[in-house]
């Protein structure tokens, strides 16, 4: 079950950069295995999420083995299980926060820039400085700005609310780091590199492509390594501290029986394809790609196996599997691709299909009618879902216990700013309540 960290719908636009280590605040939608829909033509924007998706630090969607952006993920299509609010313990998540919107004028006006060395807060005697806070705030503001109309700036009040969330995140990270050091939990460079290679592979990317994508979210490879390393250490901490009791098959069956609405699936087709084209293709590219797909079609007409031609010709990552995309439902693919695939009978190969990615030849290899999914098909996914739910509950309590046991002291200026932010948030909540329709 992967995080729909793809659906970088921008869950990743939440104030939860803390998700890197705080499973309890994660707000990602978990799904049963999905179609191995090729990133070259799928409309889905999955994550993992590090989405479903490392920008809500947009950091942790890329870390998941799910697809942040649509990709040829090696999964089957199915219906979503309700969100547990927690990334998996084995799949790093990355998320870049965006601040909540403050009421104009609710906070004080900007003060002169503070000394980068000034202490904002101490956590068990360890300082977090203005420089550390400002660096993280600036990264997130820069990401916000990329998604705003040119010339528009985030209101200062909004930045203050973002800053408060960043300080909270840094305090939590400091507490976790202290606990990791206390337990002497460490990971090697080799483990981190291997994890990043796994993430890239699950996203059908090279490490270089993954690095390029993370750069779009203001991250460097060093940032990514730091996040993955931290995630691996946190996984080890959870394993050492959490009750080892496992979710049983009986637990999974009970969930299945009590939630039948989550285990229905629409009509699906299983297809393979040959793609001549690419994401971001331009009109001037189409003529050359048409000649290539015609040549591939001639090879099929000459008796060559579809899978062999796909391996030799297709530019989709699915070419390694003979073009196999697995099962997918409606609404997951490019509209033209989807229409052609659903019109074909099993064993039938399409004529040349033009899409927003280039040209395709599509072969349907199986179909599933709409209906309920058997327990055996979803048992492992339910078990994973319930395990993640258990991890979330543990992490919520564990993280709160760390705070309760810690000595956290804010500077006078920071404390004043936090009180102003909280007042603004309280005003927002009050306004929202007033806007809600009255119950009869």
Please characterize this protein's 3D structure.
The chain has 440 residues and is α+β, with helices and mostly antiparallel strands. It folds into 2 domains: 1-264 and 377-440, Triger factor/SurA peptide-binding fold, CATH 1.10.4030.10; 267-369, Roll (Chitinase A, domain 3). It has helices at 130-146, 156-182, 189-202, 207-215, 221-241, 249-258, 286-301, 306-313, 335-343, 375-405, 412-435, and strands at residues 2-3, 30-31, 119-123, 126-129, 264-265, 268-277, 324-329, 353-355, 358-368, 371-372, 408-410. It has a 4-stranded antiparallel sheet, sandwiched between helices. Strands 4-3-11 form a 3-stranded antiparallel sheet. Strands 1-2 form a two-stranded antiparallel sheet.
Fraction of helical residues: 40-55%
Here the CATH topology of the largest domain equals Triger factor/SurA peptide-binding fold
Order of helices and strands: EEEEHHHHHHEEHHEHEEEHEH
The Cα radius of gyration reads 24 Å
Low-confidence stretches: 1-106
Task: Give me the CATH superfamily of the largest domain.
Answer: Porin chaperone SurA, peptide-binding domain
Q: Give me the number of helical elements.
A: 11
Q: What class, by secondary structure content?
A: alpha+beta
At CATH level 2, the architecture of the largest domain is: Orthogonal Bundle
> What is the strand content?
5-15%
């Amino acid at each position: 079950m992967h995080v729909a960290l793809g659906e970088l719908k921008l869950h990743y636009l939440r104030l939860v950069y803390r998700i890197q280590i705080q499973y309890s605040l994660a707000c990602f939608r978990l799904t049963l295995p999905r179609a191995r829909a090729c990133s070259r033509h799928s409309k889905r924007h999955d994550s993992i999420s590090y989405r479903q998706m490392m920008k809500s630090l947009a950091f942790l969607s890329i870390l998941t083995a799910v697809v942040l952006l649509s990709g040829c993920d090696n999964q089957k299509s199915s219906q979503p299980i309700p969100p547990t609010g927690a990334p998996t313990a084995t799949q790093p998540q990355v998320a870049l926060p965006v601040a909540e919107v403050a009421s104009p004028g609710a906070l004080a006006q900007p003060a002169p820039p503070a000394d980068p060395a000034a202490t904002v807060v101490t956590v068990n005697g360890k300082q977090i400085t203005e420089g550390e806070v400002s660096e993280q705030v600036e990264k997130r503001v820069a990401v916000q700005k990329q998604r705003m109309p040119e010339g528009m700036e985030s209101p200062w009040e909004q930045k203050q609310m973002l800053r408060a969330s960043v300080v909270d995140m840094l305090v939590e990270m400091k507490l976790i780091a202290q606990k990791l050091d206390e337990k002497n939990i460490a990971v090697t460079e080799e483990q981190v590199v291997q994890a990043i290679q796994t993430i890239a592979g699950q996203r059908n990317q090279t490490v270089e492509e993954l690095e390029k994508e993370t750069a779009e979210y203001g991250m460097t490879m060093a940032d990514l390594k730091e996040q993955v390393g931290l995630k691996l250490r946190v996984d080890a901490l959870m394993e050492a501290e959490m009750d080892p009791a496992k979710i049983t098959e009986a637990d999974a069956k009970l969930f299945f029986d009590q939630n039948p609405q989550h285990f229905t699936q629409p009509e699906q087709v299983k297809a393979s394809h040959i793609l001549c084209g690419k994401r971001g293709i331009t009109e001037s590219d189409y003529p050359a790609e048409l000649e290539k797909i015609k040549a591939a079609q001639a090879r099929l007409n000459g008796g060559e196996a579809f899978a062999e031609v796909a391996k030799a010709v297709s530019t989709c990552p699915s070419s390694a599997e003979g073009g196999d995309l697995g099962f997918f439902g409606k609404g997951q693919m490019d509209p033209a691709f989807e229409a052609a695939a659903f019109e074909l009978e099993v064993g039938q190969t399409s004529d040349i299909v033009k899409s927003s990615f280039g040209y395709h030849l599509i072969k349907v290899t199986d179909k599933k009618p709409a209906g309920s999914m058997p327990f055996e098909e979803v048992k492992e996914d339910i078990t994973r879902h319930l395990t993640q739910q258990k991890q979330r509950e543990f992490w919520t309590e564990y993280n709160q216990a760390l705070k309760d046991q810690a000595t956290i002291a804010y500077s006078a200026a920071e404390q004043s700013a936090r009180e102003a932010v909280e007042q603004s948030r309280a005003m927002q909540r009050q306004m929202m309540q007033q806007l809600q329709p009255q119950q009869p």
